[in-house]
Amino acid sequence: MSDDADPTHYRLTFRSTMDRIGNDPELFAYLNVLRVDGATRKAVMVLNRQGGDLLAKPVGLFATTLTKDQVQALGAAIERVKWNETGGMKGGDINAATLSLDYARGGRIIQRDFNAMNGQFLNAIRPVMDQVTDLMTRLEDHPARAIDVAVVRGPSGFKLVIRNIGTGAVAIADPRHPGRHDGSTCGWVGAAQDIPAVPGSGPIPLHPVGFPPLGAAPPLVTIPAGKSIEVDTVAWAPPKSGKYFARGNWENYSPVGGEAKAFLPLVPDPVEIDHDARPYRIRGAVFSDVLLFTVK
To answer: What is the β-pairing status of strands 280-281 and 170-173?
Structure first.
């Protein structure tokens, strides 16, 4: 059966980007990409930073095999849209995410670039966006090369724990590696006394707890599937007894260490990911949950 005849033999890429970093055309503070190969029902998603910087949520590469019904429903939703009658791209916002949809089945090609605030257009393709959003949400339950981060108490301070929750190796910048800003590092931990918030005063500020220098350690760390790394902060002493809280994050966007060909592509082919053992280099940001503890 030809690609034109089979409604599931399509390829789709949906992309959401916001806040470009530097001159790299693929580098954004927020990048979310979904790729679907309908013929094999394979899907992958790149999520480099959670919207709203949500705590205790993973980032990286996610992958799964969709059901036949999911593949058919998504393709049908796209092909039911009267793309030439969706109206103009009105209501955009320069601060909103830039979205794109690239769909191909046989000789049928649909390509659209739009803005997250193009209300009229988004309303016209609402069934498609509902399907895409649902698939992206489901894919977060299937980490392939993804990490999360946590803060725990250490012997004299804290430990930043970065865990590979996927099924293949990941590569990340060492948390002690210099960050994007002067004097910063890719890893960050902060602590503060847990006191009642004063209405109208905003959140309690966290006091940074630094890391020792990277020294001779390699700037790039490879973490096998199911493994984690723990990096100690410098010593931290609470000013007095009481209840405290801490949290941390890891952030890196620069291509630290190694040639690009040593890693999986930023957005891998859904069909190839199961057969490619190269590590996935994560460039983005991930945030820990809050650690509550008492000092006596």
So the answer is: parallel
